[in-house]
């Protein structure tokens, strides 16, 4: 067996080990070990503002860049040290090994939901796309200049260690990482985002939200908060894919802007109407001052989704509404 194919297997295992390490490290910081790079999970408003508005682009980059780097390195090593190895076969072998123990396994698992399998399918597609790209480039162009030498690796190792020590000492001495009024700035950014989202949703769906709330005697502020939070976590493109899956396979998924469970496709307006029906007979008034800690408010949010992150996030949006969007609690917008 050509040792270039052995290098391909090692490269595939390296890619898998990288993502396993990220998932393990993230799980140490959570009561419930769920990877923060899993885009199907709900993010709080604060997490969203930390770059969540681009989370799908970030996720694609996260899943693609490490394999690209490793596969390009593999191509360079094969061209330099094992030219008799068939490059595209080695690249394909590395990509298969990298998804074999996680994404391929989970794709055919009966315990995984369709939405989870969709992510694993996308992971496989992304790395195969990366592999095809590297194989094509490696076949047409000479990438031997990327291959490291043993002497160079040793020199770079010592250089990296020295630079890392200097950076740590510099930041420790100057405390440049400290931020003034960080909590106040984050709170302002969060409220500005919520109010901006409220204006966008009101302009597009305001009439439908008001009508649906009146029909089902549902709280207008709560319905707005749910729609804003769901829209934040499920962009229009993903909602379109979910509707296609429901239509083609007839499975039950959460669809529409309000992410309501359904076995048939739903428009955003239809999902808003069904969401109002789920939270019918709710009454959230401006006098419910501390909406973050109010258990009654939380129980009404839990009617829609009992996830703790979901409840806290929607309650945060409601708290912002109670301070900066007083008109939502007026009789004009009430469900009565």
Count of DSSP H/I helices: 13
Number of strands: 2
Q: What name is given to the CATH topology of the largest domain?
A: Lysozyme
What radius of gyration results from the CA coordinates? Answer: 25 Å
Largest sheet: 2 strands, antiparallel
> What is the CATH architecture annotation of the largest domain?
Orthogonal Bundle
In whole angstroms, the N-to-C terminal distance is 76 Å
Task: Work out the strand percent.
Answer: under 5%
Shape call: elongated
Explain what the structure shows.
The protein is mostly helical and 336 residues long. The chain folds into 3 domains: 3-147, no CATH class; 151-178; 182-329, Lysozyme (Orthogonal Bundle). It has 13 helices and 2 strands. It has helices at 3-27, 45-49, 55-81, 87-100, 103-107, 114-140, 150-174, 182-216, 220-233, 236-249, 268-278, 295-302, 308-324; strands at 253-255, 260-262. Strand 1 and strand 2 form a beta hairpin. Helix 9 crosses helix 13. It starts with a helix and ends in a 12-residue tail after the last helix. Mean pLDDT is 80; it is low at 24-40.
């Amino acid at each position: 067996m050509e040792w270039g194919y052995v290098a391909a297997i090692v490269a595939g295992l390296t890619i898998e080990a990288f993502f396993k390490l990220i998932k393990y490290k993230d799980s140490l910081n959570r009561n419930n070990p769920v990877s923060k790079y899993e885009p199907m999970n709900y993010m709080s408003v604060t997490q969203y503002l930390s770059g969540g508005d681009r989370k799908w682009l970030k996720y694609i980059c996260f899943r693609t860049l490490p394999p690209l780097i490793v596969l390009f390195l593999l191509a360079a090593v094969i061209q330099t040290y094992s030219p008799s190895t068939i490059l595209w076969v080695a690249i394909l072998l590395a990509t298969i090994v990298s998804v074999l123990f996680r994404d391929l396994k989970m794709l055919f698992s009966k315990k995984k939901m369709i939405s989870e399998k969709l992510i694993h399918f996308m992971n496989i597609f992304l790395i195969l796309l990366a592999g095809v790209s590297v194989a094509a480039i490696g076949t047409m162009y000479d990438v031997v200049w990327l291959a490291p030498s043993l002497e160079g690796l040793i020199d770079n190792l010592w250089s990296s260690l020295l630079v890392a020590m200097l950076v740590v000492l510099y930041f420790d001495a100057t405390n440049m990482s400290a931020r003034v009024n960080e909590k106040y700035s984050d709170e302002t950014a969060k409220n500005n985002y919520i109010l901006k989202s409220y204006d966008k949703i009101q302009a597009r769906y305001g009439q439908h939200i008001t009508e649906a709330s009146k029909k089902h005697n549902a709280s207008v502020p709560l319905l707005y908060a749910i729609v804003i939070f769901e829209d934040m976590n499920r962009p229009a493109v993903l909602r379109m894919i979910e509707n296609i899956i429901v239509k083609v396979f007839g499975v039950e998924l959460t669809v529409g802007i309000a992410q309501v469970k359904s076995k048939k496709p739903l428009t955003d307006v239809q999902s808003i109407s069904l969401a109002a029906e789920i939270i019918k007979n709710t009454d959230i008034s401006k006098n419910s001052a501390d909406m973050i800690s109010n258990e009654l408010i939380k129980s009404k949010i839990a009617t829609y989704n009992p996830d703790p992150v979901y409840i806290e996030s929607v309650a945060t949006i409601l708290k912002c509404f109670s301070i900066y969007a007083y008109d939502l609690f007026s009789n004009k917008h009430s469900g009565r």
